[in-house]
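can u pls check wat happens w/ N-(iminomethyl)-L-glutamic acid
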Amino acid sequence: MGNEQPTSMVISAGRVVTCDLTRATSADPLHVIENGAVWVKDGIIVLVGTWEQVYQAAHGVEARWHFPKSVMMPGLVDAHTHAAWVGSRHHEYVLRMRGEGYEAIAKAGGGIVASRNAIREASQEQIADVLRQRLQRMMRAGVTTVEVKSGYGLDEEGERKQLEAIAFVSKERDVPDVVPTYLALHALPPEYRERRAAYVDEVTESWLPAIAKAGLARYVDAYLDRNAFQLDEARPMLEKAQQAGLGVRLHVGQFADIGGAELAAELHASSADHLENVSGEALGKMAKAGTAAVLLPVASWTLGQNPPPVAQMRNAGVKMVVASDANPGTSPTESLWLAIAMAVRGYGLSPEEALLGATVHAAQSLGLEQQAGTLSEHRAADLSVWPVEHEWALVQPWGLREPQLVLKNGNVIG
Ligand code: NIG
Ligand code: FE
């Protein structure tokens, strides 16, 4: 749309859900402004307040949108996705519905390795095309920042191909902001079955330094579990990544508690994700270290698992993030809204906890609290407007809900 876009605009709504924690109180945890408005200039929010406050202050306004019966939200932040996959694993899904286990299918050469094979056959351009379309669908649903992991290459060439596709798409204009993560230890390729240590060594000593040096990732990730990688395998790689300036996010406790949450806390990781199996003690350590818990309810629901210990997380003071985990194996969805609905319905999060978990808490876990996740001054003008009277209507598991307006950096997303 380019130059046709207005540069100064006022958007007003019946309820403006700011998610601004500096203004929130225990009675008003989302800091909602009734009859609220934002003034957007050059892609940045310059003022948030009541209709009167904003109308009086705003000048040189080129466009006004008034939604008196709607809810305005900050652009959502999806802090855990594998959105750069190609192909489909629907055969495995049907096998699992017939009773086969996710771990058993992986052991037999399916699962992550099946997605690796699809990445091998795809060009960087093909991966970029699929990713772009996926990210654009997410953005049309109001998701304006997305973390995207690699992890389906499983060797240097494949991981770089994914990460370069991610970098290529993230430079485009009509996509969400993208945070790239090198998922360095995801699955052991079958050809390394007898050479496990050599694989971990190669990741640590060769592929990671090259990928970090090329600036292809902001975070590193590892899948720590009984049938995945062990703490001692991952630790040197994670420390090396930190020395290279990458932050750490970890897949932890999805099937078994092998101490991954403790390692996350020890490394002051930005997040420990999944956490269906985690001890109260480890949660205390995470709270102390400032490591967020990224909850992935669509994945645990797809796998037929019990929810993580949310009440213990709450009591320990662990920050809870809600993310889609969009991937072709455990979380076949692109919808962060579905994850929010399931976090409330299945995990017992309050609507406010779920909405904070997909906005400000998610942004904090990605180190983006100054840019994204709240409707407040100096942040990017990323927002969405919904034809509902109250934000509680947004956490119900309805199907397709159409926003009335989505802005990314002040640009209208059509
Ligand atoms: O977040 N379990 C590890 N990683 C992903 C699934 C990846 C896949 O099955 O393709 C997850 O659940
Ligand atoms: Fe994941």
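Residues 271 and 292 are 5 Å apart (CA to CA).
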